[in-house]
Amino acid sequence: MYDKFIPPTYGKSGFSCPHCSVFSQQDWYEIEYNQHDMDYILSANLREKNYTSLDAPNNGGGSGYMINNLAAMSKCYTCDKPAFWIRGKIIYPKSPVAPLPNPDMPEDVAKVYREAREVSPLSPTASTALLRLALEKLLPQVGAKKSGIDTMIGELVGQGLPKEVEKALDSLRVIGNEAVHPGTIDLHDNQEVALALFKLLNFVVDRMITQKKEIDEIYELIPEEKLKGIERRNDKVLKEQAK
């Protein structure tokens, strides 16, 4: 689910599986090279100490293993498929490290979002630039009629845009601009910032499209006579305000 995404994180007991996308328990194994047997072995769990030398001594004190926690494997409890890690970073599978798009995201926006999601493991900067483009495509579909992202956000603010949505839009705009025109924000290899922007775009769609749709669906359940009563009440208030 787009709103329950927990990125794969080294050593965590649970996260969204890079294979099946389900939030699931993860079993961990350390991949060790036993110099005595000259072979790689799997040992359950991860050792906590993180030696910096390439020949950290084991309890036997003789041959030792290669650097502690240099390589590891996590296995999803749901789909039983493995992921492989080197020095704390996932190297397989190179699947997206971002949530799926909100199902209510307009298709032309979702297409760009999915492209950003695909490149996110390889280039946070590229994915951030694509999310800026997705935002530019989204704004006209939620009420903006002018051109330019900054101008469109200002237009929506004038229409009563909630402050938290304004902050989300400006965060996407400013950080997205940094990806296109590098400035003071370092986006190089910054997966955390990129992931936050994916979540922000989903948040904007949820607030400006999903929640409105859900309210409209409930409102349509009100009997027609009751709706006419609501209209009469509103007309009365507006006439009194106009005096």
Descriptive report:
26% of the residues are buried. The protein has 243 residues and is of the alpha+beta class. It is elongated and about 95 Å long. It has helices at 107-119, 124-138, 149-158, 163-180, 191-219, 224-242; strands at 14-16, 23-34, 39-44, 71-76, 82-86, 89-92. It has two domains: 2-92, no CATH class; 107-219, Four Helix Bundle (Hemerythrin (Met), subunit A) (Up-down Bundle). Residues 49-68 have low confidence and may be disordered. Strands 1, 2, 3, 4, 5 and 6 form a six-stranded antiparallel sheet that branches.
- The tally of helices reads 6
Shape: elongated
CATH fold category name of the largest domain: Four Helix Bundle (Hemerythrin (Met), subunit A)
User: What structural category arises from helix and sheet content?
Assistant: alpha+beta
What is the H/E string?
A: EEEEEEHHHHHH
Q: Which class of the largest domain in CATH terms?
A: Mainly Alpha
Strands, total number: 6
The fraction of residues assigned to DSSP E strands is: 5-15%
Biggest sheet descriptor: 6 strands, antiparallel
> What is the terminal-to-terminal distance?
51 Å
Summarize model confidence as the mean pLDDT: 83
CATH architectural grouping of the largest domain: Up-down Bundle
Query: Whole-number radius of gyration?
Result: 25 Å
Low-confidence spans? 49-68
Number of domains: 2
Helix content: 40-55%
